[in-house]
Write a structure and sequence with these properties.
Structural class: alpha+beta
Number of strands: 7
Strand order of the largest sheet: 1-7-6-5-4-3-2
Largest sheet: 7 strands, antiparallel
CATH architecture: 2-Layer Sandwich
Radius of gyration: 15 Å
CATH topology: Alpha-D-Glucose-1,6-Bisphosphate, Chain A, domain 4
Helix content: 10-25%
Length: 151
């Protein structure tokens, strides 16, 4: 029926992947300073820190409106520099029945993968949301490049 989808964006960045991976594991709360026009707030709902099994929340500006999401961190692979989040509440689930985000930060490449299930055939693919994460990644890359004086 075409209700399940996979959307992938992979692109080169200036800074090495371990810097992105470390930021998402230890400093998510700084993303609102790095990309303030896009990310408003990060919160850990369950768990003491960002690790598999923790539940986190984001408040962000997307398509001209404030959105919220709550996500379960399903997996963190330090060797492959990847993180998997499953959306469990929020605006995304108003139009998708299921939504999983996988980020991979290898060498100087970032790959964002969305696995999703549309509620109806008319539900659009989340291309704009993927573009949002690409833009946030570019903000992070510029910040890391400046902070590390060239990565």
């Amino acid at each position: 029926m075409g209700l399940n989808g996979r959307l992938v964006a992979s692109f080169e960045v200036k800074c090495e992947g371990h810097l992105f991976h470390d930021l998402y594991q230890t400093s998510c709360h700084h993303l609102s300073n790095i990309s303030p026009e896009k990310i408003h707030h990060f919160h850990i709902h369950e768990g003491d820190d960002v690790k598999a099994g923790s539940v986190i929340g984001w408040k962000f500006n997307h398509d001209g409106k404030v959105n919220v999401t709550k996500q379960l961190i399903e997996a963190i692979d330090d060797e492959k520099k990847s993180i998997t989040w499953k959306v469990i509440e929020g605006d995304t689930l108003e139009i998708y029945s299921a939504f999983t985000i996988i980020a991979s930060f290898e060498n100087n490449w970032v790959t964002w993968t969305f696995l999703y299930e549309k509620k109806t055939e008319d539900t659009p693919d989340p291309i704009n949301l993927l573009g949002f994460l690409v833009d946030v990644t570019k903000d992070i890359d510029a910040h890391l490049h400046k902070e590390t004086k060239g990565c």
